[in-house]
Design a protein that fits this description.
Strand order of the largest sheet: 1-2
Structural class: mainly alpha
Number of helices: 5
Strand content: 5-15%
Number of strands: 2
Distance between the termini: 40 Å
Order of helices and strands: HHHEHEH
Oligomer: single chain
């Protein structure tokens, strides 16, 4: 529902303008394709039974106010990965441009041991 271009145009025109600036004139065609992708990934998660075999260091990040993925879903993936960290960004919604850049940079640097 949140990726319906007609509803976005009607109810959140400024967001529609932002999407057009970020993604070009075909943003209205892009949103349903992204929605289909997300629904299909939710129904058939490609890594569901393979997470335990991923030994590469991974940092899972989620905003505490994210409406696209829950903290519980993120924590589940984090717990399923043998070499993972979990970072919960406070007062953070989806999409990425809502993240506080200095906080995000600090968490990334910490993960890469650059701090």
């Amino acid at each position: 529902k949140m990726l319906n271009p007609d509803i976005i145009l009607e109810k959140i025109p400024k967001y529609a303008q932002l999407l057009e600036r970020q993604h070009g004139s075909k943003w209205k065609q892009l949103l349903p394709a992204i929605a289909d992708l997300m629904i299909n990934l939710g129904k058939n998660p490609p890594l569901k039974d393979r997470l335990a075999s991923i030994h590469t260091p991974v940092q899972i990040m989620v905003g505490d106010k994210d409406n696209m993925v829950t903290l519980e879903e993120s924590a589940h993936v984090y717990r399923s990965l043998p070499n993972a960290k979990l970072a919960v960004l406070p007062e953070t919604k989806h999409p990425m441009d809502k993240v506080r850049p200095n906080l995000l940079l600090s968490l990334i640097k910490d993960f890469w041991n650059l701090s």
